[in-house]
Design goal:
Elements lengths: L2 H9 L11 E9 L10 E4 L5 E3 L5 E7 L2 E8 L6 E8 L5 E2 L2 E3 L26 E5 H6 L7 H4 L6 E2 L9 E2 L7 E5 L2 E3 L23 E7 L13 E7 L8 E6 L3 E9 L4 E10 L1 H8 L3 E15 L4 E16 L7 H9 L2 E16 L3 E19 L8 E22 L2 E22 L2 E24 L4 E12 L3 H4 L6 E9 L4 E12 L3 H4 L17 E13 L4 E20 L2 E4 L15 E21 L2 E15 L5 E3 L6 E11 L3 E10 L3 E2 L4 H4 L2 H4 L15 E2 L3 E13 L4 E9 L6 E9 L9 E2 L2 E5 L1 E8 L3 E9 L1
Parallel strand pairs: 1-7, 1-8, 12-15
Antiparallel strand pairs: 1-4, 2-3, 2-5, 5-6, 9-14, 10-11, 12-13, 14-15, 16-17, 16-45, 17-18, 18-19, 19-20, 20-21, 21-22, 22-23, 23-24, 24-25, 25-26, 26-27, 27-28, 28-29, 29-30, 30-31, 30-32, 32-33, 33-34, 33-35, 35-36, 36-39, 37-38, 39-40, 40-45, 41-44, 42-43
């Protein structure tokens, strides 16, 4: 679809007539620890005269609002003032927003009316960013994909491809953990890389999201088995007043969402999304045809003010096949020769039961997640020839976790424990240079962990301290049985020089168990588990920084970080040995290799961050990260890791205009990624290339080369039409507006003659004549989308 046609279609909607406007924001204000309603709290809209006072049940209502986006401020004696940003409202249905307030330990006898401000948790006073649903939806180039939106934040590398690998502060993509309403989910992308993360399309439907807390470090003791980041996705509740629905049609899929009340105490949200990428890619003549579908639901029952139950479900079905009818270009032939056909399905289902007491609450979490991954390929894509890949694997986890949080005077105390069963199976066959690797394996074991954290303010809230401990263990091996071997102390401190400037600090030790693909590896069926003695990977981290909060919806931070890795597995690949940390950002499977020893690594750098939350119609983010990431190689020498981009710059800005127009733009710059050159002589051997038609890296030159730098400009235009009974939103999202072409590692292909036949290397009949084919990405991707809401 051309840009001219897309723009013409977008502007044609100007002729529509908008009806009367009468939007409402309403909800309940409660105590964050006891869930008791707060009567008499003031709820006001930033920059407006509208305000409301909560009644005896904590309920408030702000009516007669024009459709748009607002910030709320909440104040009450004895509680910390709170601001809630970017609340989108319409006149089709009321926006229901329940808000919790935390008790203010000091100054209980005075009311302090403050302007909009950023609130940071005492456990993690730095390296935490919060993204609202409206920010995700409007993000230029994000196309409503959460995995793409987080690339605007500091410390997050932007992969130079169409994938959503999450690379935080120079750490590998498998070092992150994700939680959905407190329920751990294994991945957040379609076509996920088993043993790592990432994929081309986000899995979570943004229409469910209330906000996302992103910890790029300094995560609290309640969260374990992570080295680089933790994501907490908080979902909205279904509308308690009436049924509603929305239909979203975008460039790659359409989604249907429904929500509403089931009874006076129970609400629901449910969605289904179906892609039409397969047909679109076929029409464009691309060599592979992906398709996906996913579902998501949430049930919330509030039995009373003391007890509530949340049930969450998330799942996907993914399929990718080859397009043998595409044009026979060198690039397409290379893709067809190397891209396996793939089928995946996965789901997570869980329940969270929360019990509130006089001074706190307890949370019981029960969940199950499952992944089924299949991939297959034949030599020369001919099923009459040998099968070069036949892979089938499953992962199943059942988890039980109990947490308790309370406020004892000025001390915030939390503790908990969890246990889970892990089952992994694989039936793997792969023909590679050097021989065939094939085995059947199954493992099942138990993982367990516990934590405690105490936090308190001192010196009239100027000094905030938090200390936590965590330990984890498992029954997989003798090295993991003793949880005290993974004792993880974590300490945070924050000193507020005044209400605007603060110094923040955190240090801690973090552990992560290697992926099941590593743990379940065998040399052959019936053989021993070769990696049974692997350790938890260890990372000791220090983060310190300054924050300046203008109290006008703007803040500036600078943070320095240092991560020291140890016990990182070294794996055997093509007869060589490299750190496992250098693998992970590709399709397929990561970690199904023998572990040959351990290594060390480090990542360190500086982050500069500025954020302007919505104020007078303007919003923006500036994020700059300067860093270095490196691991010791097989010779014990530090070599830059595959994630050592050195610098990442992201700038996002937008403006809400009159008549419900909104425009935004995002610029991203990044240093080129390191890569390992090919061993041309080994790769071009006929015995190798005929079964593995691509370059084999020369790991004696690990990450010796570097790609060119990356930049991209994205833009977005939204136009909303708030009718009386429904809303219509039309948007134009353009990725890579400047049509920048960026290079990835070249492809090693056969240098064929004029008739398309393979040639022998000059003077050597045992080798093919090969050449390096320039591999570029970076098409301009305009998307026109329509969102219809009832």
């Amino acid at each position: 679809m051309s840009i001219k046609f897309t723009l013409a279609l977008l502007f044609s909607f100007l002729s529509l007539t908008v009806l009367a406007q009468n939007a409402i924001i309403k909800g309940k204000i409660t105590n964050s620890f006891t869930n008791q309603p707060i009567a008499g709290a003031t709820v006001s809209i930033q920059g407006k005269t509208n305000n409301a006072i909560t009644d005896s049940l904590g309920d408030y209502s702000l009516s007669n609002l024009a459709p748009g986006v607002y910030n709320l401020k909440i104040n009450f004696i004895g509680y910390k003032p709170k601001s809630v940003f970017d609340i989108a409202v319409s006149n089709a249905k009321a926006t229901v927003l329940d808000i919790t307030l935390e008790t203010e330990v000091s100054n209980l006898d005075e009311v302090v009316i403050q302007r909009a401000r950023f609130v940071k948790p005492i456990e993690s006073p730095l390296s935490l960013r919060t993204i609202g649903a409206t920010e995700i939806k409007r993000n230029p180039g994000g196309n409503r994909d959460i995995s793409k939106v987080i690339q605007s934040l500091p410390g997050v590398s932007a992969p130079v491809s169409y994938r959503n690998d999450i690379i935080i502060r120079g750490g590998a993509p498998n070092e992150n953990r994700f939680y959905l309403d407190g329920i751990e989910i294994p991945n957040i992308n379609h076509f996920t890389t088993q043993g790592s993360s990432g994929g081309p399309v986000g899995l979570i439907n943004v229409d469910f999201i209330k906000e996302v807390d992103f910890y790029s470090g300094a995560f609290p003791a309640a969260r374990g088995n992570a080295l680089s980041s933790v994501f907490e996705f908080k979902q909205k509740d279904g509308n308690p007043d009436k049924m509603g629905a929305s239909l979203t049609v975008g460039s790659s899929d359409f989604a249907v969402v429904a929500d509403g009340p089931i009874s006076k105490k129970t609400t629901y949200m449910a969605s289904y999304r179906l892609s039409y990428l397969q047909g679109l890619f076929k029409l464009l003549g691309l060599p592979f045809l992906p398709s996906y579908q996913d579902f998501q639901f949430k049930l919330k029952t509030k039995f009373n003010t003391k007890n509530e139950l949340t049930i969450v479900g998330l799942g996907a079905i993914d399929k990718a096949v080859l397009n043998f009818n595409t044009e026979k270009t060198e690039s397409n032939l290379y893709t067809i020769a190397n891209f396996p056909e793939n089928k995946q399905d996965n789901y997570t289902i869980g329940a969270v039961y929360k019990i509130y007491r006089e001074k706190g609450f307890s949370t019981l979490v029960l969940s199950r997640n499952y992944l089924n991954n299949k991939a297959y390929k034949f030599q020369d894509n001919d099923q009459s020839k040998i099968q070069t890949l036949d892979y089938h694997s499953t992962e199943t986890e059942n988890k039980l976790r109990l947490e308790n949080s309370s406020l004892e005077g000025k001390y915030k105390i939390s503790f908990g424990a969890g246990v889970e069963t892990a089952d992994y199976t694989t039936n793997s066959l792969q023909v590679l240079p050097g021989g065939t690797e094939g085995y059947i394996s199954a493992i099942n074991f138990i993982k367990y962990g516990a934590f405690a954290q105490v936090s308190a303010p001192y010196l009239a809230d100027k000094l905030n301290l938090s200390f936590g401990l965590r330990l984890d263990g498992n029954s997989f091996s003798s090295k993991g049985e003793n949880p005290f071997k993974t004792l993880s102390p974590r300490f945070s401190a924050s000193y507020n020089f005044n209400e605007k400037i603060s110094f923040n600090f955190n240090t801690g030790i973090y552990y992560q168990l290697p992926a099941y693909t590593v743990l379940g590896f065998r040399n052959n069926t019936g053989g021993p588990l070769l990696n049974q003695n692997v350790n938890y990977i260890r990372s000791a981290q220090v983060v310190a920084g300054l924050e300046y909060n203008t109290l006008k919806s703007t803040k500036f931070t600078v943070e320095g970080f240092f991560k020291n890795y140890s016990r990182y597995p070294m794996v055997k690949v093509f007869g060589d040995v490299i750190p496992l940390a250098n693998l992970g950002a590709d399709f397929g499977v990561v970690g199904n290799k023998p572990v040959i020893g351990e290594t060390e690594g480090r990542s360190y750098g500086l982050e500069f961050f500025a954020q302007q939350r919505l104020n007078k119609g303007f919003y923006g983010i500036f994020a700059l990260t300067l860093f270095r990431s490196e691991f010791k190689d097989k010779l014990g020498e530090y070599v830059q890791s595959s994630w050592n981009n050195r610098y990442i710059l992201s700038m996002t800005a937008g403006k809400i205009l009159p008549k419900n127009w909104e425009i935004g733009a995002k610029v991203r710059l990044g240093g080129g990624s390191p890569y390992t050159p090919y061993d041309i002589a080994f790769s071009s051997l006929k015995s190798n290339y005929s079964i593995y038609p691509q370059g084999v890296q020369d790991y004696d030159r690990l990450n010796e080369s570097r790609l060119k730098g990356f930049y991209q400009l994205d833009a977005r235009v939204d136009k909303k039409y708030p009718f009386k009974k429904f809303n219509l939103n039309v948007y134009l999202d353009i990725q890579n507006l400047t049509y920048n072409k960026y290079e990835t590692q070249s492809q090693l292909v056969l240098d064929r003659d004029a008739s398309g036949n393979a040639q022998d290397a000059p003077g050597d009949a045992t080798r093919f004549k090969t050449k390096l084919l320039t591999n570029t990405s970076g098409n301009i991707l305009p998307t026109i989308g329509v969102i219809f809401e009832l």
